[in-house]
Amino acid sequence: MRDIRRGRIILGVLVAVSLLGATVDQRTGAESPFVPVRQAGAGVFGAIERAAGFVTRPVTGFIHSLATAPGAQDEVRRLKAENARLRAGLVANSLDAARSAQLKRMLGTVSRGGYDVLPANVIARRGNPGFEEAVELDVGAEDGVRPEMTVMNADGLVGRIVLTGPRTSTVVLISDRGSATGARLEGGQEIGVVHGVGQNGRLVQFRLLDSTAPMAPGGRIVSFGSQRGAPYVAGVPIGVIERVEATPGELTRVAFARPYADLTALDVVGVVLRAPRRDPRDAVLPPKEGAGPPKQVAVPPKVGAVPPTAGAVPPKEEKERTR
Questions:
Q1: Are the CB atoms for 170 and 163 separated by under 8 Å?
Q2: What angle do CA 167, 169, 171 make, to 5 degrees?
Q3: Which of 20, 27, 39, 112 is the most buried (most CB within 10 A)?
Q4: H-helix or E-strand containing 207?
């Protein structure tokens, strides 16, 4: 009992002293004798608060991140979608620029030959019954495309149409083993047949019908043309001979040529809707590799003519001086 009373007395004294101190501090203001004590207490408690904040801040931050996680995830998804859209836009712009350049080159090629073409894009590479190497175009019967039409690109012959749908069509490439194309050597009348040999279009076989006609690597081949331009129009570049096979005793000569058109990377092509009125012959062939500009040929002076010397006066001026 005595301990309880003593504790109550001490508590009452402390409360009374606290009230007295608060009253004195309140009334004296800035001149209060408790100012140093108050400043010391503020420093101590401030340090304690900072330490407590350092300890509890990660916890509160984690709790806040959990509370805002759905919104943050939505923002991340939005940014990823926007990034993907921008990347797709850049890729599309790059493809459009490349296709525009290909189309411009192709139009230049067909204008030299006088072909009337329908531009198209290759949308798939596919096999067809009876054919191994074929591609699908994004044009069809509704665009005026029909079977047995020639297909070319800016570099040369690609193949022929074998199947048409309303908005798509199938092209068999000249590299297909079942393909056969009438062809002619550049600058002459020697004709033959180009056959596909597979190998992903790296080479085609050219069989020259005249075994005595000269043929050597570097020779260039163009399409000979079919009757009424179907399935192949005349004058389209086919390829360059890389090697000639020895065929002793045979009636034909065989060579292998590298196609001008890259048959493994087709994109923009043209379907020839109408053959030219005249055979363009070799007019569509590209310039030969290493060929430079034409040389300036010096014209020799006439017989008996005296070349002018430095300082010589023309006859007309000499005549005026004598006057």
A1: yes
A2: 160
A3: 112
A4: strand 204-208
| Range ranked top by mean pLDDT from 12-16, 124-128, 210-214 | 210-214
Task: Report residue 252: phi and psi, to 5°.
Answer: -125, 165
Count CB neighbours of 95 within 10 A. Answer: 11
Which of 224 and 9 is assigned the larger pLDDT?
224
The model's pLDDT over 241-286, given as tens digits with 9 standing for 90+, comes to 999 987 777 778 899 999 999 998 899 999 999 988 888 888 889 8
Report pLDDT for 292. Answer: 47
The Cα–Cα gap between 76 and 69 comes to 10
More confidently predicted of 17 and 217: 217
* pLDDT exceeds 70 at position 188: yes
- At 280-314, the pLDDT tens digits run 888 889 887 655 444 443 444 444 444 444 444 44
User: What's the CA gap between 207 and 191, in Å, rounded?
Assistant: 9
Question: 3-state secondary structure string, 151-201?
Answer: EECCCCEEEEEEEECCCCEEEEECCCCCCEEEEEECCCCCEEEEEECCHHH
| Number of alpha carbons in the 13 Å side-chain half-sphere of residue 247 | 19
**φ and ψ at residue 27, rounded to 5 degrees:** -80, -30
Backbone angle region of 199, left / alpha / beta, with phi > 0 → left and psi within -120 to 50 → alpha: left
Q: Report helix, strand and coil shares of the chain as percent, to nearest 5.
A: 40, 25, 35
Strand partners, 254: 207, 245
45-57 pLDDT, tens digit per residue, is 555 556 555 555 5
Please give the Cα distance from 151 to 158 (Å, whole number): 5
Two tokens, residue 38: 């108050």
The helix (run of H) or strand (run of E) holding residue 15 is helix 2-28
Buried b (16+ CB within 10 A) or exposed e, 263-290: beebebbbbbbebbeebbeeebbeeeee
